[in-house]
Design brief:
Shape: globular
Strand content: 25-35%
Number of strands: 10
CATH topology of the largest domain: Ribosomal Protein S5, domain 2
Binding site for ATP: 92-102
Domain GHMP kinase C-terminal: 200-258
GO molecular function: 4-(cytidine 5'-diphospho)-2-C-methyl-D-erythritol kinase activity; ATP binding
Number of helices: 10
EC number: 2.7.1.148
Active site: 12, 134
Length: 276
């Protein structure tokens, strides 16, 4: 068995999310700006020659065979390649922070290294897309402008920012929101310059807030301190601060039983730094 490799699977924020269309296969066309965070789940990997994939750790809420971590490992597995994977979860399920996708991407990156598969990052992105639309951006490991169904990526360098993220304690299924009849699916395409000038929103926010009152309450509370937004399809909401101290001052005021954390936005995933 190899020496364990310990990696961060970073969370993400959608700084905006426009849905510009829906394809015949059901996938939604979108535009978004994915901001990676220096906070997330922690995964440990040890490669062996058992031919099996073992997954342990926190209660992951579903059977191992249905977990994206195991599916990612099996997408690379051949011969007698095996691995023991341990997960320490921080990213809430159904929070819009990309936890499952980030875990899958981190698994692809780690096992490509440990098993010496030799895939390029671009090839791993293509494999990741078969697992989920958000997986490629985590494989690429850079804050990015995203289009298509999530596979068209353009790295973006953003100034350092700190974010207060609140999880209001509910689970929002992505499938429910993307299948909602009232969801806007025809937002006109915009430019990156327009986003930086403030011409953007999250098309899912109104739908989620209407269906999940706790999300609406969290958005309204956080709006007292800045521009409060939903990330992805929710349930987490966030706002940006110029400093860690400013974000933490507000975090101390977050009402119970909501959970909150402060994280720094990063342009490059810490995972890539470790693997390089």
């Amino acid at each position: 068995m190899s020496k364990p490799l310990r990696l961060l699977a970073p969370a993400k924020l959608n700084l905006f999310l426009h849905i510009t269309g829906r394809r015949a296969d059901g996938y939604h066309e979108l535009q978004s700006l994915f901001q990676l965070l220096d906070w997330g789940d922690t995964l440990s990997f040890a490669a062996d020659h058992s031919g099996t994939i073992g997954l342990s750790g926190d209660d992951l809420g579903l059977a191992a065979d249905d977990n994206l971590i195991v599916k990612a490992a099996r997408a690379l597995q051949h011969g007698d390649h095996g691995a023991r994977i341990h997960v320490s979860k921080c990213i809430p399920t159904g929070g819009g922070l990309g936890g499952g996708s980030s875990d899958a991407a981190t698994t692809l990156l780690a096992l490509n290294e440990l098993w010496q598969c030799g895939y390029s990052n671009t090839q791993l992105q293509h494999i990741g897309l078969q697992l989920g639309a958000d997986v490629p951006v985590f494989v690429a490991g850079q804050t990015a402008w995203v289009e298509g169904v999530g596979e068209q990526l353009k790295p973006v360098e953003l100034p350092e920012s700190w974010y207060l993220v609140i999880h209001p304690g509910c689970h929002v299924p992505t499938g429910e929101i993307f299948s909602a009849r009232e969801l806007t699916r025809n937002s006109p395409a915009i430019t990156m310059a327009a986003v930086f000038q403030g011409g953007h929103r999250n098309d899912c926010q109104e739908v989620v807030a209407r269906r999940y009152p706790e999300v609406a309450k969290a958005l309204n509370w956080l709006a007292k301190f800045g521009d409060s937004r939903l990330t992805g399809t929710g349930a987490c909401v966030f706002t940006r601060f110029d400093s860690q101290a400013a974000a933490e001052r507000v975090a101390e005021q977050v009402p119970a039983p909501w959970q909150a954390f402060v994280a720094r936005g990063v342009n490059r995933s810490p995972t890539l730094s470790v693997l390089s």
